[in-house]
Amino acid sequence: MADFTRPRIFRPPSESMSYYLPLTSGCSNNTCIFCYYYGSRLQMRDVDEVKQEIDALHLFKTQGIAVPGMDRTVYVLASQWDGRRVFIQDGDALVYPFPKLIEILDYLNERFPDLERIAIYATAQDILRRSVDELRQLKDRKLTILYIGLESGGDQILKDIGKNTNAEEMVAAAQRVEEAGLTLSVMVILGLGGVERSNEHALASADVLSRMDPEYGAALTLTVVPGTPLHDMIERGDFHPVSPFQSLRELRTLIEHLRVTNCFFSSMHASNYLTIRGTLPNDRVSMLARLDQVIQKGDARALRPEGFRGL
Ligand code: SF4
Question: What is the pTM of this model?
Answer without folding.
Answer: 0.95
